[in-house]
Amino acid sequence: MGTRRGRERLERCVSCGRAVPRDKAVEYSTRTHFTTDLKEDNVTYTNFSDSYYCISCAKHRGIFEKLKQQAQRRRERDSYG
Questions:
Q1: Can you give the residue ranges of every domain in the chain?
Q2: In the chain, how many H helices and how many E strands?
Q3: How far is residue 66's CA from residue 28's CA, in Å, rounded to a whole number?
Q4: Is 28 exposed, middle or buried (0-12, 13-18, 19+ CB in 10 A)?
Q5: What is the reported pTM?
Q6: What are 41-81's pLDDT values in tens digits?
Q7: Phi (first) and psi of residue 78, to 5 degrees
Q8: Residues of 47-69 as b/e, b for ≥16 C-beta within 10 angstroms?
Q9: How many alpha carbons lie under 13 Å from residue 52 in its C-beta half-sphere?
């Protein structure tokens, strides 16, 4: 689904509960591991969950800067190859 003529979907900030437009919200993916460790059977389940933060909470938690640095590294790596 696309946008609705200039109006972006609102997402709730996980930290403070503020309603933020989706294009301004910082998306942060976390991975959760569930393991059942038996003697011979080892079953691992991986669950990905997306969390949305407003810019102020993302800056406070350091998420915004990490994503910015990752994007810079990705751009540098792509420019070499």
A1: 10-80
A2: 2, 4
A3: 10
A4: middle
A5: 0.62
A6: 677 777 888 999 999 999 898 887 777 788 888 888 888 75
A7: -70, -30
A8: eeeebbbbeebbeeeebbeeeee
A9: 14
